[in-house]
Amino acid sequence: MTAIRTPFTAVFNDYVRRQLNYKSDVEYYILGGGITGPWNWNTNNAYADTSQALSSAMRKNPYMKVFVASGYYDMATPYFPAEYTVSAMNLDAQLRQNFSFAYYEAGHMMYIEKNSLKKLKDDVAGFMQGALRK
């Protein structure tokens, strides 16, 4: 964490100021720093469940494609619950084919490990190419 926090923060601040021309004196917190108290997802359960909204959107737009990138060693957002959630959405087989899953020998920040970064790039490029085909 120490190795990536400072460079990520510096690059982000440089990007938003120089490239996006966003000017603010508000401190930027990376990885949730500065957030006080628990996050409020306006739900009674312990997690944010977006599966119903996603299921509804996919039924309304059967051409929508979804790419899920998961790291095997991610303790914050483990890969299997994403698969489970999709399987529990009760989508017909045709819509379920619109999901693509890829797995990486990393956590959820797979782009900080060189081999996973290359695989992620290739997987996203392949997903985009496939999504453009009818």
Structural account:
This protein has helices spanning about 1-20, 50-60, 80-85, 95, 115-130, and strands at about 65-70, 100-105. With about 130 residues, the protein is mostly helical. It folds into two domains: about 1-35, no CATH class; about 45-134, Rossmann fold. It is globular, with a radius of gyration of 18 Å. The N and C termini lie far apart (about 40 Å). The model has no long low-confidence stretch (mean pLDDT about 85).
Summarize the structure.
The protein has five helices and two strands; from the N terminus they run H-H-E-H-H-E-H. By secondary structure, the protein is mainly alpha-helical.
Describe this protein with a few key phrases.
single chain; 134 residues; mainly alpha; Rossmann fold; 2 domains; two-stranded parallel sheet; 45% helix; 9% strand; globular
Helix percent band: 40-55%
CATH architecture of the largest domain: 3-Layer(aba) Sandwich
Strand order of the largest sheet: 1-2
Radius of gyration: 18 Å
Which fold name fills CATH's third level, the topology of the largest domain? Answer: Rossmann fold
Q: How many H/I helices?
A: 5
Mean pLDDT: 85
Secondary-structure map with pairings?
Elements: H1 2-19, H2 51-60, E1 66-71, H3 79-87, H4 93-96, E2 99-104, H5 114-132
Parallel strand pairs: 1-2
